[in-house]
Specification:
The complex is a heterodimer of chains A (362) and B (457). Chain A is 39% helix and 19% strand. In chain A, a hairpin with a 4-residue loop joins β2 and β3. By secondary structure, chain A is an alpha/beta fold. Chain A starts with a helix and ends with a helix. The radius of gyration of chain A is 23 Å and the shape is globular. Chain A contains 14 helices and 13 strands. Chain A has helices at 2-26, 30-34, 38-43, 45-56, 61-75, 98-113, 127-131, 144-154, 164-170, 186-200, 222-227, 312-315, 330-337, 352-358; strands spanning 79-80, 83-85, 90-92, 118-124, 160-162, 211-219, 235-241, 248-254, 260-262, 287-292, 299-304, 321-326, 345-351. Chain A folds into two domains: 1-59, no CATH class; 95-358, no CATH class. Helices cover 73% and strands 0% of the residues of chain B. Chain B contains 20 helices and no strands. Chain B has helices spanning 6-22, 28-41, 45-67, 74-92, 98-103, 114-130, 139-147, 149-152, 160-168, 174-206, 215-246, 264-270, 273-290, 294-312, 316-338, 346-362, 365-375, 385-405, 408-418, 423-444. The longest helix of chain B has 33 residues, at 174-206. Classes of the chains: A alpha/beta (362), B mainly alpha (457).
Chain lengths: 362, 457
């Protein structure tokens, strides 16, 4: 047995040493170290940051996560890293609190009270909200439908609600959500756009007027990244083009560091990048200003999150100017880059996962 | 940082072991102490400050006990024990949450292992008071007794003299490291592969409102809780013993396959052995020796078991859990002595332990009683689709857990070791350890650690 112990010591130490050296070469916990502050050093929060950063750069990370997903789905419930894996699709198991809905409604009400134009609000469910019925009931103590209803019930009467949940739920047999992502597809966004456009006072562009381009049929979304589940099915990303003569005159964005960028409504090159979803409006920006050749002097302020990225292009056919403000820090961004009195309408378009995360409270 | 994290396994552990092994013998303790401070530092600088103060207070109390006149000895003993118990209560219970503000440590920050090293510290002071042990003037060595990182998280509780003996007889060679790594990977697998899956299972049952839970679901939920508790505690204990062994120190395991046994008292003798030994040595024996009455001794026994329950979880349910176990052991002993019948059998023990543990898992007596009612069909629902669903997905892990919690594997390995096929183990041991390490690494690769804990000690 002494030989066995010697071999064990040698082999395990070899694995540990090789992995740690490779992790250090990959960048190791370098990113984590850069996020150390006095506060998280004092309360130990930096250990989580460091740990996640180390895991992200761990050698053979993708392969290991894939193995873990296999073990997870075979040895117990098909839940991996908070994602339920079914044959049809992956669904994120989010824990919601109704207090998040109340807090969100409060913020929108406060904005509305201080805005002279019309305010529109739509909460966009995740794929779990639409397809979560197939999950065992104990996974979702609060559903996205309840969150939507709670927000709608708490909004001031003058705020116009757009019930994206019901629209999407009725169309759930269609390809309105990616199988490997929490977000809606362009078609899902289009379905909601039809109602939004009407509420905003326009006639929506009919579906058959668009020419639809399949940009890629090899898209693996955020749920795939979270699970590394290799047996998941790839998704298709589409672009909806409508050549009615309307052109984008300018489209500029400002990132979180205040640097200005020229951006495209559709950045096809992003499909080959680590985040193919940047196809829609490029990298994450704090503020985006889109000017079009539409000659109606109408302007719209959109306050939203990533959910709005594939939705905004549909609206460019109706406004001469659309400004998008990231919901993360919208008050400061509006103060810094624009003036809300210049807009007749404001549209809040927020994903329910974003609402749950940002307005969670205690 | 816990042992079950990539940062620990692939960064902290190899570096600290290397530093420790290359350090000259004279400074090894100092190196280990510095490494332990860094380890605590990963839990936050406030925790480091707390640990240093905790060690200092007990060290000074020990010195005072040693130096002070015998008549006044009870003062530093009482002060030291009071401080230790106060710290334990302040971190383990919500009743004294204002102490978090006093110590400046946020509610969310928990000094991992406080339940165990508090017992060690109290035992140290009690031994000096009784003259069983001498006070150690070496602060670093004493601090290692309290906060040595390989022993910090659910490590083995030993008295101070035993610790110093182990420290003085450290052995450094590849065989010890090999044995240590086998124990560590076994513990890691218990935690990451089994306990985490059972934790999810138990959480799934807990997410179902009690009024909607079927009897089958309730039985599955409590089975998952017991197995998860065992694999979490024994997993960390194995990891701790393995780490200590890599650093040249041999500590005994805290669990000896207690679940599938024929009597509750056998369960008790194999469950958290050193903790129960501590309660026996420092509370039951001294108090019982004061009284010559067997009924008082039994009362003390039950009272200490209530205390043990509270040590696991500051709740009325945990206290009742302790009381019931204490009573069960006394009743078994009485019946055994008179032999009216033999209440033996694995089913009897499992059933008793399961019903008693309901109170520990639910936290309060009323919730525990409601849960037991549900287990016997109180909701008018014996089985439902949720229970069938859970059984379908978790049956594999339950079977693995049941097998791994028995001594069948250990006995098989022992038989192979003594047979002519012993060479198989030479190949199997390193291969299985490496495979377990890789599998655990894979499962921890999402967030870098396995941090779910069914109970915080």
């Amino acid at each position: 047995m002494k030989l066995a112990e010697k071999i064990t010591a040698f082999s395990i130490m070899l694995i540990i040493t090789a992995a740690s050296v490779a992790a250090v070469i990959n960048g190791g916990a370098g990113n984590g170290f850069s996020q150390i502050s006095l506060k998280n050093l004092a309360d130990g929060g930096f250990c989580h940051v460091l740990s996640e950063s180390f895991a992200a750069e761990f050698p053979f990370g993708k392969q290991l996560r894939s193995v873990a997903a296999e073990i997870g789905t075979k040895s117990g419930e098909p839940v991996v890293n908070g994602v339920y894996i079914s044959e049809e699709r992956m669904l994120s198991l989010n824990e919601y609190r109704l207090s998040a809905a109340d807090n969100c409604a409060e913020v929108v009400n406060a904005y509305s009270a201080d805005f002279e134009g019309a305010v529109y609000f739509t909460a966009v469910p995740t794929s779990t909200g639409i397809y979560g019925d197939s999950l065992p009931s104990y996974f979702l103590s609060v559903t996205e439908k309840q969150i939507t209803e709670r927000i709608h019930g708490s909004l001031d009467v003058n705020i116009r609600r757009i019930d994206a949940y019901t629209i999407l739920k009725n169309l759930s047999d269609n390809y309105i959500y990616y199988r490997s992502d929490t977000k809606w597809t362009s078609y899902g966004a289009y379905c909601v756009y039809r109602t939004v456009a009407q509420k905003l006072g326009f006639i929506p562009v009919p579906y058959d007027k668009y020419s639809i381009r399949h940009v890629t049929d090899d898209y693996y979304g955020n749920l795939f990244t979270r699970t590394g589940y290799m047996e998941s099915r790839a998704d298709i990303i589409d672009i909806y083009d409508y050549n009615d003569g309307t052109e984008i005159v300018s489209c500029t964005g400002v990132d979180s560091h205040g640097i200005e960028h020229d951006i495209n409504l559709y950045d096809v090159s992003a499909v080959e990048s680590d985040n193919p979803y940047n196809l829609y409006l490029g990298e994450k920006m704090d503020y985006i200003e889109i000017s079009t050749s539409v000659n109606n002097e109408k302007s719209l302020l959109v306050i939203g999150d990533e959910t709005a990225d594939c939705f905004i292009p549909f609206l460019t056919k109706h406004y001469s100017k659309i400004s998008f403000v990231s919901a993360d820090n919208y008050k400061n961004i509006i103060d810094k880059y624009t003036d809300k009195s210049r807009y007749e309408q404001t549209l809040f378009i927020l994903g329910i996962d974003h609402i749950s995360g940002k307005y969670r409270g205690e | 940082m816990t042992y079950s994290s990539l940062l620990f396994i692939y960064m902290f552990f190899p570096l600290s072991l290397l530093l420790y092994l290359i350090a000259p013998k004279k400074v090894k303790d100092g190196v280990l102490y510095a490494e332990s401070l860094v380890f605590c530092g990963f839990m936050g600088l406030r925790i480091v400050a707390f640990m240093v103060v905790f060690c200092l207070v007990n060290y000074l109390a020990g010195l005072a006990l040693y130096c002070i006149s015998p008549k006044l000895k009870s003062i530093p003993l009482a002060a030291g024990v009071l401080y230790d118990v106060l710290m334990l209560i302040s971190f383990r219970s919500s009743y004294f949450s204002y102490l978090h503000g006093f110590t400046g440590i946020p509610q969310a920050v928990f000094p991992v292992g406080i339940s165990l090293y508090t017992l060690s510290a109290i035992g140290y002071l009690a031994d000096i008071y009784k003259g069983n042990s001498k006070c150690d003037k070496n602060f670093i060595r004493f601090s290692l007794y309290i906060m040595m990182f390989p022993r910090l998280i659910m490590g083995t509780i030993v008295d101070y003299d035993t610790f110093v003996h182990i420290l003085r007889h450290r052995r450094y060679n590849m065989n010890e490291i090999g044995r240590g790594l086998v124990s560590f990977t076994k513990g890691l697998a218990k935690k990451v592969l089994i306990a985490d899956a059972l934790y999810e299972f138990n959480s799934a049952v807990k997410n179902i409102p009690l009024s909607e839970l079927s009897a089958a679901g309730a039985w599955l939920g409590i089975a998952a809780y017991i197995l998860c508790l065992y694999f979490t505690l024994s997993g960390f204990s194995d990891m701790s013993c393995g780490l200590c062994r890599c650093f040249g120190m041999k500590f005994s395991n805290s669990f000896n396959h207690p679940l599938f046994v024929r009597k509750v008292r056998i369960f008790v003798s194999g469950w958290h052995i050193q903790v129960l030994h501590w309660f026996r040595k420092y509370i039951i024996s001294p108090v019982s020796s004061k009284f010559d009455n067997p009924y008082v001794s039994k009362l003390v026994f039950v009272a200490v078991w209530i205390l043990t329950g509270i040590w696991y979880d500051f709740s009325s349910g945990a206290a009742l859990w302790g009381m019931l176990i204490g009573l069960a052991v006394i009743i078994e002993n009485m019946l055994n002595n008179h032999k009216p019948f033999r209440p033996n059998g694995i089913i009897y023990t499992m059933l008793s332990i399961t019903l008693m543990t309901v109170f520990l898992s639910q936290g309060s007596i009323s919730k525990g009683a409601q849960y037991i009612a549900v287990m016997f069909g109180g909701n008018g629902n014996l089985a439902d689709s949720a229970a069938a669903y859970m059984l379908k997905y978790y049956i594999v892990i339950i079977l693995i857990a049941v097998y791994a919690s028995t001594d069948l594997f250990r006995n098989t390995a022992a038989r192979i070791k003594n047979s002519r096929f012993s060479g198989v183990l030479t190949v199997l041991t390193p291969v299985s350890s490496a495979v377990l390490l890789i599998l655990c690494t894979a499962l921890m690769s999402f967030i870098g650690q396995s941090s779910t804990m069914i109970i915080q000690l």
